[in-house]
Amino acid sequence: MSFQWPNLLWTLALLPMLVGLYLWLLRRRRRSTVRLASIAVAKAALGAGPGWRRHVPPALMLAALAALLLAAARPVAKVTLPLTERTIVLAMDVSGSMRATDVQPSRIVASQEAAKAFVNALPRDVKVGIVSFAGTAAVVQAPTTSRDDVIAAIDRFQLQRGTATGSGIVLSLATLFPDDGIEIAQITGQRPMPRPLGEEKPKKEFKPVEPGSYNSAAVIMLTDGQRTTGPDPMDAAKMAAERGVRVYTVGVGTTSGETIGFEGWSMRVRLDEETLKNVALLTRAEYFYAGSAQDLIKVYESLSSKLVVERKETEITALLALLGALFVALGAGLSVFWFGRVA
Length: 343
Fold this sequence. Notes:
CATH topology of the largest domain: Rossmann fold
Helix content: 40-55%
Structural class: alpha/beta
Strand content: 15-25%
Order of helices and strands: EHHHEEHEEHHHEHEEEHEHEH
Mean pLDDT: 82
CATH superfamily of the largest domain: von Willebrand factor, type A domain
Strand order of the largest sheet: 5-4-3-6-7-10
Largest sheet: 6 strands, mixed
Shape: elongated
Number of domains: 2
Low-confidence stretches: none
């Protein structure tokens, strides 16, 4: 914990002085008590007495004063807070190798089911977008808070040939920053949509930021193979890092390499873990390996808890002030309840 106005911490020196003053008043009160001839008469006159309870309200008032003095110094601490605005883009591999059944019932079905469970577990105010990629990348669903639309988009996946992991990242960034002038057509190989004359948007001046510093959005990329086409995923990861966007990578399926056959043809697939780890490292995110459907579900559960909260330095003056007010109210309430007065 740190303080914005640390000089005010000197006011805490008042606390031991007040404790000393309280003890002095107690001693003075004992000295001024009328002496009685008989101890039995004194006990009968005093009754059971308040005992330890008489010290509780002053102790609570002292604690309240300590909390308020700390609040006056404007303390700052790292706390976990829910994000006020969040957009998550799921970039999912729909290449032909996702038909493989080493992850039951198949890689594509397991990834779809895990993604849908992840989406349903997110807070309703979190926007979710879906980007699919194989030989090229496509926005299947623009970021939205409608869970039905996102689930329907995941169910519409069509498997294709090729694995363009870099295109998936670039198109995810273009989805998050539509006004940044990211040249999707040039990088992903897609034809640009013609714009009517006079509607061309001027490009914004781009200034790189600290990697991982953009907390309003994140990309989760799931793939089962290595790049076969499209831009280098490390170049795409650099674009994400310069915009502060974290790219969490999830590798599913075979790590050692395997020949997968279906519909009369076969293909050799291998999960490029090194690249996925480097993408996550460059963007200040994490890499996860999922070798089974259950692993994939656990990965998404872990990501769900990471992506909706953040730890950051926050001023907690209001919390300490509230604590001080509660101590005052409790001390006053106990004093009235036990002794019939506020003292």
